[in-house]
Amino acid sequence: MIRAYKFLLRPTVRQERALSEMLRDHCSLYNGALQERRDAYQHVSKTTVKYGGQSAQLKEIRAFDPECQGRWSFSSQQATLRRLDKAFAAFFRRIKSGDTPGYPRFRGVSWFDTVDFPRDGDGCRWDSTPHDPTTRVRFQGVGHVKVNQHRAVAGHIKTVSVKREGRKWFVVLTAEQDQPKPLPATGSVAGIDLGIANFLADSNGDFVPNPRHGRKAAAKLEAAQQALSRFPRCKAKDRTANHQRAVDKVARLHGTVRRRRLDHAHKTALGLLRAHDFIAHEDLKIRNMSKAPAPKPDPDQPGAFLPNGAAAKAGLNTSVNDAGWGVFLTILHAKAESAGREVIAVNPRNTSRTCPECGHTAKENRPTQEKFHCVACGHHAHADTVGAINVLRAGLVRRDAKPA
């Protein structure tokens, strides 16, 4: 199996400058390759440029510009071109499926924050000595950078990436390792129902409170963003010191919220996997759930629109995104693979409207957000607990179903 590790880098001033230049030059390569594809399609009889042709030009590009493109790893530049090729593959896939296409866009220097090295030892070298407290990673054109390695890396290093987050730098490793020893069996199964009032409710009647990290930091974020809005928009090189400090403060607050949300997701997922052998959850389409409502044109007044509940939906969308369901479910599935647990997603349709006692399904069974009262048999329970019980039953049926 493949496992990822992320460590904080401690570059010197010179190394930090070199890392920034590496991101800048890879961003220039990405944008140049994108421009070539656009020009070839628009002006040369709709010719399509592929990765192979652009990769073959790298040798000439490096010879033409040795001070910028020529000093970086050849394989990392190939990875940047593959990154663009994947963006176009996803673009054509969305067209065929009828989704919003989303044509690949040019990247600004501040929005291009990752450089990938496809193989350890080719343009980079992870140097971790077991008995040496100082770990370093070497990047071509940068040098040996100190790493704050807070845990051991197990397995064979496959890829290395350098990533910038605000003013901080990180190295991300992927390591191939043997399947770890599974957690001891508990004999317990559970269904979970994700929500807003409570982050989740399980089929045993327990609840995990919603930490609402984004809402708690909303006041500070609003003040910081208002302070930033007073400065005119300009490129990073033209910012004053006060402007840069305002940018850094907004980025730092967003990073704090992101890390807290991620920490809560990791701890919640680990607690569930330690307690249960089998977990079922709703197969939520989070992107569809957080879409803005479509406008309603007024038939009597051309150019006017009827109320469509956009303001209320905007608040709900904010709460859905703040909860971080997608991040949590991704972490839950990844940890389940390592722990030898089974996690299954089921159809969420009517899970909170079906009575677990008599099976009656009706909208009236859920008079409020929290209460469940079956109109057929009179069963009372918390609506989220009822949903978790029905999710568990659907998950067990799906697990035990014979394959076709």
3D structure, described in words:
The protein is of the alpha+beta class and 404 residues long. The chain folds into two domains: 2-176, no CATH class; 189-400, no CATH class. Helices cover 42% and strands 20% of the residues. The strands form four sheets. The protein has a seven-stranded antiparallel beta sheet with strand order 2-6-7-1-5-4-3. It has a five-stranded mixed beta sheet with strand order 10-9-8-11-14. Strands 12-13 form a two-stranded antiparallel sheet. A hairpin with a 3-residue loop joins strand 4 (135-139) and strand 5 (143-148). Helix 1 crosses helix 4 (74-97). The protein is globular and about 80 Å long. 23% of the residues are buried. The mean pLDDT is 91.
Give a quick set of tags describing it.
404 residues; seven-stranded antiparallel beta sheet; alpha+beta; 11 helices; five-stranded mixed beta sheet; globular; 2 domains
Going by helix content, strand content and strand pairing, the class is alpha+beta
Weakly predicted, low-confidence segments: none
Q: Give the fraction of residues assigned to helices.
A: 40-55%
Annotation field: number of helices:
11
Rg computed from alpha carbons, rounded to a whole number of angstroms: 26 Å
H-E order: EHHHHEEEEEEEEEHHHEHEEHHEEEH
Gross geometry: globular
Return the domain count: 2
Q: Average pLDDT across residues?
A: 91
Sheet of most strands: 7 strands, antiparallel
Subunit organisation of the chains = single chain
Distance between the termini: 28 Å
Total number of strands: 16
Strand order of the largest sheet: 2-6-7-1-5-4-3
The share of residues in extended strands comes to 15-25%
